[in-house]
Amino acid sequence: MVYQLMLVILLLVQMGDDLRATRREARSRMAFLRTPLVTSLLWSAVAVFVAAALVRTGIGSALLFGRPWALLPAAALVSLGISFCWYRYIERLDMFERERRRYLLLAFVLGCGCTLLVFPIGGWVRAYTPLVLDGNHWNDWWYSVLAIGLVEETVKLLPYLVLLFATRQVDEPFDHLLYGSMSALGFAFMENTLYLRDSHLMAFSGRAFTASVSHMFDTSIICYGIAIDLHKQGRLRAWRIPLLLGLAALAHGFYDYWLLSPHRPALLTFFFFLGTMHLWAQMKNNLVNISPKHALGAIVRNRALRYGILTSFVILFAFTVVLVLLLRGQVAGESFLLDGGWQMAGTLLLLTMTFSAMEVVRGRLRPLRVPTDFRRWFLPRLESGAELAGQRVELKLGQHHDPQALERYIEGHLPVVGRIIERAALGDDTDWFVFVPERTIPLGEKYVPDRFLVQLHADHDHLREDRYALLLLRAIRAPHAPNSAAFTADGVSRQGFRVMGRAIG
Q: What average pLDDT values come out for the chain (505 residues) when binned by 10 residues?
């Protein structure tokens, strides 16, 4: 309970920052009320209020009670909603070249259809191999990895491979993760329907978050490996597919192993899920960064991602509350609303803040790693500072500012007007941005005249139209940007830049 409360407080703090930032950007109060952030929060509040009111009054209570035919359609409807919510999220990450929806739908449908292959393959495995689930640690482990993990990951991989080799749709790195995730969501739809039916919709939280995200992560292990291989080698080395498939089977098996016996600490599955959540967030960020179709105008709106996830699942949860009310009565509906809502809150808020923390730095490919501090696993992956890309700014020295020696180096060329075009990484610091002045600033042969790095000073968290903010300014040494038009500061050490001092912009 304390953990969920901590996450709620973090989200409220983040929400306050987002509302203030949205209000600054809006030209009027009416425009502010029409922003996606505000409308998302309003829709969430309305959905919860309506569901709570229906449960409180008991309207429609047990209307479908005693009608067993209604449970399967209700479970399928909720399961489809789960897959749709995750589809809407991952589709928004495809910023540079949107995929045709009919191919995404094809991947989803193939994922649903290939799920049926699990039954004959699983039957063959149980009949002709010594794999057995009998409570023995050794037997259960290999059953989880081979009879469950390997079989299911092979089945989920097939639709992705069909689209990869039979179409030309998978043509940028993120497409691999996108189509693989759509196949996994198709598989998860079929599986979630059965679990939701058997639990009378009570398994909503586990199926919507941990199970569905884990299915996407396991398949993404293979898709990410293939995408990186194509990016680095320019071709796919066939031997890597079975290697990646084996790694995905191990991850899948480890997740299931701790859930198969009531005598094992199932909490380890949740710990493992937390680690995979951080890894999946890094995977999708890396693949977006290395896209060859990177467009400077495509700026990630983390707020749209954050409240898109939150609102869609809150509305789906409210809808599920109503279904429980209709199927099982007022007492069950009230219990699901209170207990299920609180149970859902922690995982949903953790996923919402972690999966919306995007740092688009062109060409930046970070090694995948989980936080070394285990306590960080329980905290969301926070985004960097303010997004300045796309803003037109004027740089100058303050009127009452006495420039230091290094600042005099550039003082004669200020003020200058220009545009901040993209985020850059200076070492591990991703709060730098590339500033392009409208006129070049000649600083000698050692420095690039048409590219500079700027960063908001720690005392300022945003740029406003009506006032100046303190900025740190760095000139770029020419050897680090032989072609200044294609410059990115990814992975460049601080020795590649000269500190020019502070300016206001």
A: 75 78 76 82 92 86 76 95 94 85 95 94 86 84 93 95 92 93 97 94 92 95 94 86 95 90 79 91 91 68 78 94 89 88 82 81 86 78 70 72 56 80 81 86 79 76 65 75 42 41 49
Cis check: omega of the bond before 437, within 30 degrees of 0: no
| Helices (H), ranges, 210-239 | 212-233
Do both 1 and 107 map to the same domain? no
Can you say whether the dihedral through the CA atoms of 83, 86, 88, 91 is positive or negative? negative
Residue 365 lies in a domain: no
Is the distance from CB of 178 to CB of 99 less than 8 angstroms? yes
How far apart are the two ends of the chain, measured CA to CA in Å?
45
Residues 280 and 184 both lie in one domain: yes
Alpha helices in 236-289 (DSSP H): 240-257, 267-289
Specify burial of residue 233 (Cβ count, 10 A radius: 0-12, 13-18, 19+): exposed
Domain final residue pick, 300, 315, 340: 300
Q: Is the pTM of this model over 0.90?
A: no
Burial tier of 373 (Cβ tally within 10 Å: 0-12, 13-18, 19+): exposed
**Together in a domain, 325 and 220:** no
Place of tokens 């460049």: 492
59: containing domain: 1-64+301-355
Half-sphere exposure of 37 (CA within 13 A, CB side): 19
Spatial separation of the C-alpha atoms in residues 75 and 323, rounded to whole Å: 9
Q: What domain count does the chain have?
A: 3
DSSP string, 175-203: HHHHHHHHHHHHHHHHHHHHHHHHTTTTT
Residue type, 84: F
